[in-house]
């Protein structure tokens, strides 16, 4: 049994590893599995202090993420294994640093989320993009079994998800809705970069009020996707608002259409299984940023109230996230 101080320092270790990796991620140094960092060259190119950059890399060598390779650094086997997932760090930590970096002021009410405090959307957009790649593999498999021609992505963020769906076939059309201007701009850019702008419409608007979108824009939609956005609408519009939004979705897809909803299930106090990673922290950041997770069963009930039914439930390939394949109840 380790000493209490060791146990406590496990937490501080996690903090420093996370902060160091996040800094490297923000500097653009955490590339693919074969990333090789030459601190002299990188520091000069990025306008950083080479000595301090080296100190960070040396620290991460001690912590087993990098190994030295002459004057440069490359991933250890362990670091390489993590490489596809470093994008979780800006999504999970970086985006919420404005909140948790000022924790006490938030607790005192000097800073109030949504009034004079906001998460860092650009980190969320960048980080989600990395995460989407992993989720998408699963969703892609699910989509193989769904016939659709028009897809609507609610809270489309960077639009990368929409782009990947549209790449499946040139006959597909897409609409993305997001209420963050930054996300809409990023989505338009990403879709244009992929030559998909002609098949997509990105709308700045409220995904919780689909009936308020310009008439006709959703006419072709027979697949709606909501990845990690329904819990935002849950806070914004409460339970009744979610049910009304789900009714709108049912109206958009009609019978035969499908709704893919990806969420992380809320954990009741004391309900976390031993060793559960990520979800308790995910839940905490949501409490502090005007979002409200719901349990899997609660989502089923809201869907049922809106005339929808869960046809299939799949793990979404990310911690405890799940994906519902939903249809209109006959
Ligand atoms: C957690 S991100 C998920 C982004 C994207 N779906 C993904 O999985 O990569 C949530 C996104 O939903 C957007 N959002 C939140 N509430 C919204 C609403 N009521 N209407 C439209 N977009 C909303 C946010 O601006 C953000 O881009």
UniProtKB/TrEMBL annotation:
<dbReference type="InterPro" id="IPR029063">
    <property type="entry name" value="SAM-dependent_MTases_sf"/>
</dbReference>
<dbReference type="InterPro" id="IPR041698">
    <property type="entry name" value="Methyltransf_25"/>
</dbReference>
<keyword id="KW-0489">Methyltransferase</keyword>
<dbReference type="GO" id="GO:0008168">
    <property type="term" value="F:methyltransferase activity"/>
</dbReference>
<keyword id="KW-0808">Transferase</keyword>
<protein>
    <submittedName>
        <fullName>Class I SAM-dependent methyltransferase</fullName>
        <ecNumber>2.1.1.-</ecNumber>
    </submittedName>
</protein>
<dbReference type="GO" id="GO:0032259">
    <property type="term" value="P:methylation"/>
</dbReference>
<feature type="domain" description="Methyltransferase">
    <location>
        <begin position="151"/>
        <end position="241"/>
    </location>
</feature>
<dbReference type="Pfam" id="PF13649">
    <property type="entry name" value="Methyltransf_25"/>
</dbReference>
């Amino acid at each position: 049994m380790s000493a209490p101080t060791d146990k406590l320092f496990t937490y501080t270790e996690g903090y420093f590893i996370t902060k160091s990796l996040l800094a490297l991620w923000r500097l653009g140094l955490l590339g693919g599995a074969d990333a090789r960092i030459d601190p002299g060259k990188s520091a000069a190119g990025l306008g950083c202090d080479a000595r301090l950059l080296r100190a960070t890399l040396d620290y991460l060598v001690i912590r087993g993420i990098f190994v030295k390779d002459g004057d440069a650094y490359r991933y250890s086997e362990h670091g390489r294994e993590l490489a596809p997932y470093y994008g979780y760090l800006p999504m999970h930590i970086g985006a919420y640093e404005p909140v948790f970096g000022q924790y006490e002021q938030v607790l005192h009410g000097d800073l109030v989320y949504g009034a004079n405090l906001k998460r860092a959307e650009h980190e969320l957009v960048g980080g989600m993009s990395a995460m989407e790649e992993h989720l998408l593999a699963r969703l892609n498999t699910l989509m193989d079994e769904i016939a659709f021609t028009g897809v609507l992505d609610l809270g489309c963020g960077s639009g990368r998800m929409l782009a990947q769906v549209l790449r499946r076939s040139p006959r597909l059309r897409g609409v993305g809705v997001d209420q963050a201007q930054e996300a809409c701009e990023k989505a338009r850019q990403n879709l244009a970069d992929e030559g998909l702008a002609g098949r997509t419409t990105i709308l700045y608007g409220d995904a919780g009020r689909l009936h308020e979108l310009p008439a006709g824009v959703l006419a072709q939609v027979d697949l709606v996707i909501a990845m990690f956005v329904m819990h935002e609408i849950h806070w914004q519009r409460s339970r009744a608002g979610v049910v009304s939004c789900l009714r709108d979705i049912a109206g958009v897809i009609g019978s035969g259409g499908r709704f893919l909803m990806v969420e992380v299930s809320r954990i009741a106090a004391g309900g976390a299984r031993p060793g559960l990673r990520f979800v308790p922290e995910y839940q905490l950041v949501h409490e502090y940023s005007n979002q409200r997770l719901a349990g899997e069963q609660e989502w089923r009930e809201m869907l049922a109230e809106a005339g929808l039914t869960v046809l299939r439930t799949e793990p979404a390939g990310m911690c405890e996230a799940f994906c519902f394949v939903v249809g209109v109840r006959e």
